Give the backbone structure.
Amino acid sequence: MAVKLCFVTVGATASFEGLIRAVLQDSFVAELERHGFTRLLIQHGKGGQELFDAYRAEYENGQKRHGLEVGGFDLCPDMTPYVSMVRKDEANFQELGMMISHAGTGSILDALRASVPLVIVPNPDLADNHQQELAEELAGQGYAIVGKLDDLPSVVAKATNYGERAPYFRRENEKPFAVMSDELSWTED
C-alpha cells in the first residue's frame, strides 16, 4: 500500500497550540482521508506535547483513526528526512503528500527546497503580522497556500491539486529569498 503523508511542523521557537488543535480536528483528519492520505505526522514542539498526548490517549494510543496513522514528536535538529517523506518516491511506495507549516523561514525553505506542496499557517497569537505578510507574499507568487486555523480542511484539496507543480527553490531563483529578506530585513554580504 502506498503512503501519502501530511507532515505538520510548528517549529522550535514559539508554541503554536492552535495549529496542533486544528490538525487533530475530526473534520481535518476526515478531509485528509478523503484525499487519499494515509499518515499524519506532527512535529508538535514542547507546547503541543500535552495536546498530542491527550489525542493519543483518547484514540487508542495512536492507532489508526479515519484510516490514518497518526504520529508525533517534539523537536528534531534536522527536519529534512521528514520533509523528504512528503515527496513522491515510487521505489518506496510514497505518493506526493503535503507539508503544513508555521510561517518560520527555516521550515518554509525546507519545503521549497524539497519541492513539496506547502501550506503556511501564520500564528495569529504573535505580536505583529510579519508571518501573515510573508505567507501572503509567497502565496501570491505561487510558492505556497495560506491556511487559516478555523478553515484548515479547505486547504487539503488545494494542496492536492497543487501536486507536482510545487515550485522548487534554487539560489538562481531570487523571488523567495527576496520576499524573506524584505520581511525579515536580511542582508546579503
